[in-house]
Amino acid sequence: xxxxxxxxxxxxxxxxxxxxxxxxxxxxxxxxxxxxxxxxxxxxxxxxxxxxxxxxxxxxxxxxxxxxxxxxxxxxxxxxxxxxxxxxxxxxxxxxxxxxxxxxxxxxxxxxxxxxxxxxxxxxxxxxxxxxxxxxxxxxxxxxxxxxxxxxxxxxxxxxxxxxxxxxxxxxxxxxxxxxxxxxxxxxxxxxxxxxxxxxxxxxxxxxxxxxxxxxxxxxxxxxxxxxxxxxxxxxxxxxxxxxxxxxxxxxxxxxxxxxxxxxxxxxxxxxxxxxxxxxxxxxxxxxxxxxxxxxxxxxxxxxxxxxxxxxxxxxxxxxxxxxxxxxxxxxxxxxxxxxxxxxxxxxxxxxxxxxxxxxxxxxxxxxxxxxxxxxxxxxxxxxxxxxxxxxxxxxxxxxxxxxxxxxxxxxxxxx
Length: 416
Description:
- Keywords: Signal.
- Residues 1-25 form the signal peptide.
- The chain is mainly β.
- Helix content is 5%, strand content 41%.
- The protein contains 1 helix and 44 strands.
- The strands form 4 sheets. It has a 16-stranded parallel sheet that branches. A 13-stranded mixed sheet has the order 3-1-4-7-10-13-16-19-21-23-26-29-32, with no helix packed on it. Strands 24-27-30-33-35-37-39-41-43-44 form a 10-stranded mixed sheet, with no helix packed on it.
- β43 and β44 (413-415) form a beta hairpin.
- The N and C termini lie far apart (106 Å).
- Mean pLDDT is 88; it is low at 1-6, 8-23 and 412-416.
C-alpha cells in the first residue's frame, strides 16, 4: 500500500512536471535528415545536440531547421504526418535546401507565430494556417512559394505582415485581422476575405493582387489604402468599406449569393478596367445596400461595352465612361427608377430602363440609345454641346416607332 502511494505520488510529480514543461515556450531543432514530424528522435533541444525533448513541438514552441539538421541530396524531406503545431518556424543555414511536405488535409501546418523559409527550399502544403494567437506575425519567404493546390489561411486577429514577396499556388483566405503587404508583391490563385465572424482590414501598400478577390465575411472588411486587383472583386456578404481609398478591378460583382452586404464607397474613385464584355459594375441584388457617398465609378477599359447593373431604388454619385471607344450601358433589368448625380459618356451609350440623373453629359459625334417605353429624367443639366462645324450627336429610341421619354428639369418633354 505504501509502495502504491509512492508510485502514485511519482506519477503526479511526473504529470505536473511534463505539463509545466509544455506551459513554457521551448526551442526545437531538427536533426537526421529526412523523417516524419511525429518522430521524437528527429528533435533536439539544441542545434545538433544530443538532448531529446519529451514530446514533439506544440503551439508555444519555436522550431528550427539549420546547418546541423543533416539534410543531404538524398535525405532532405520533413514529412508532416500529423498536424504540425508551432509558434515560430525558421529554415536557414542548411547547405542543402530542404523540403517541407504536408500532403494530407488531416495534417495541416499550424503556425501560431511567424515563419521564415530558406531560399531554394520547397514548402508543399495542402493546408497552411497562420493561427490566431493575438500576436503580430511576419512572413519572410526568401523567394519560396507555397506549392500545393489548396489554401493558405490568415487567422490572426492582430496583424500579419510580409517582409518580402509572397507567392502561393492556392487561394489566400484572409479570415481576421490586418494583412499588411508592406509594398511587396503578392501572387496567389485568388484572395478571399471570406469565412469567419471577425472584422478585418486590408493594407496593400501599393501592391496589386494578381487574380480574383472574394469578400464573403459577414461582418466587415475595411481598406487601409488603395486596392488594385487584376481580375474580379466578388462581394457576396458583409460590409466592404473603401474608406475613401482608390479601388481598381476588372469587374465588381455585388450580385452573387443571398447574404446581406453593404458597399460603403465614401469619396473613393472606383475603377472598372475590363474590356469588351468583361468590365461591369454589377449591383443588381436586393441583398446589396449601396452607400455611394461622393464616389466616382470610372470605366477605363480600352474598348468594349461596360455596364452599370443597378437594383431599383439605388442612389449613385458620379459615373463616367471615360474612353471614346467605350459604349457605356447605364441600367440593366431593374424594375424601378435608379438615381444618379452625374453621368459622363465620352463614347456611344445606352440608357436602359428608368433613370433619374441630375447631370447628363454626352459627347460630340456619338450615338445614344434611350430605352423605348422608359423615361430618362434630367433634374439639373443636360450637356450635349456641339461646337461650330462639330459632328452631330444622335439620340434615338432603342425601338423604331416606339417612343422613349426624355424629361428635362424645366418640364420640357420630348419623345424620340
